[in-house]
Amino acid sequence: MKALDGVFIRYVGRLFAMRFIGLLAFFVIILQMLDLLNRSEAIMAADGATTQSIFRYIALRAPQIASQFTPFAALLAIVVTLSGLNLSSEIVIMRAAGMSVHRVLAPVGIACLCVAVAHFVFHELVVVKASSRLAYWEANDFAVGLEEDSATRTNIRVTYEGEIVTAASAARTTNGVRLTDVVIYDLDEGGLVRSVTEAASALHDNEGWRLFNVREAAGATASAMERASRAWATALNPELLFALTLNPDRSSIPTIVRQIGQLRRDGADTQPATTSLLSRFSRPMSTLLMPLLGAIAGFGVSRQGNQLVRASVGASLGFVYFVAENLMLAVGKLGVVPPMLGAFFPFAIFLVVGFAILLTMES
Predict the structure, then answer these.
(1) In angstroms, rounded to a whole number, what is the distance separating the alpha carbons of residues 199 and 348?
(2) Is 101:299 a contact under the CB 8 Å cutoff?
(3) Could you tell me which residues come within 8 angstroms of residue 164 by beta carbon, excluding any fewer than 6 positions away?
(4) Rounded CA gap, 254 and 310, in Å?
(5) Residue 265 and residue 239: Cα distance in Å, rounded?
(6) Residues 45, 46, 49, CA angle at the centre, nearest 5°?
């Protein structure tokens, strides 16, 4: 019996793996082509751009697409695999031989566990670095020969202690931290803009922040005043600035942990970063749910003529899960719900739904 189980696991696992790889490759190729249609003009507009720029963009963008669509490709691969086994009456034979629903799904579950682990490792080792490089390259208009500068942040927007601060870039230099193209909106107690300050640059050194080439106006009808420089009294220190502008989706897990610690020390909101940290585990884990949600496609009498309906229901359950997951992550990052709830609530709910489906089919 153990030898038979080994053959069965290899057979069904191989069917699932072939379909999963094919579907994932299909998604990556199609979506990469559509993305290139939208981005190729901007990429080739850079001085000295060649086809190498296109290949570099593909190398940086394709891992993101693959990581994003791995759970969905696993779901469709499960639906297709189980539907095929059911149409050929192989699942009926397995059930007639005394196999339970859980045992029939075991090979797919083992394969999904391997996919989930590989997805997590691939995202941490490949996708994170590729996303960071692509974002920096895109912020610099796809400049040819541009090397990534991890000490520089681009497209800064921070809200902290009654101020909204935007800047084109923030960089660590030998003289301190420098911001370029700075705009500061000072807010009153009601959240309305009290004054607007524009500066060509800002520098933080041992004496604090100083703005240069300043232009400021207080009130809607006030005329703008210009100064060569002035001090900027703000609670936003450089370390907090870099922590608030860190994008967790482009950072490693240790970096996010350090970011959360910095935010906690400065009394800033840690919920967005904590939710993003937890989502790094919940997203790969979603692949483990797919055998439960797609199982409905493989059980039932094929001659009843409702195989397409069962397959559609299985795929629809997976689609609803992805919508719920993204929705809860969004509200978690906004601080509407606790980070743990935002990251794992859809997983817990659909885990119960999946096991309920299995118990129903078993009985």
Answers:
(1) 49
(2) yes
(3) 157, 158, 184, 185, 187
(4) 43
(5) 11
(6) 95
What are the structure tokens assigned to 321, written together? 């899960």
> Can you read off the two tokens belonging to residue 170?
């923030």
For 320, the token pair is: 């609803």
In the block, residue with structure tokens 């691939």: 122
pLDDT tens figures, 9-34:
788 888 899 999 999 999 999 999 99
Whole-prediction pTM: 0.81
For residue 187 the two structure tokens come to: 């807010």
3-state secondary structure of 56: helix
Cβ proximity of 53 and 293 under 8 Å:
no
Query: How does pLDDT run across 243-297, given as a tens digit for each residue?
Result: 888 888 888 899 899 888 888 888 888 898 899 999 999 999 999 988 888 888 7
For residue 230, the cross-strand partners are 211
Measured in whole angstroms, the distance separating CA 276 from the mean position of its chain's CA atoms is 8
Q: What is the distance of C-alpha 215 from the center of its chain?
A: 38
- If DSSP codes are grouped into helix, strand and coil, which group holds residue 168? strand
- Note the helical H segments in 156-195: none
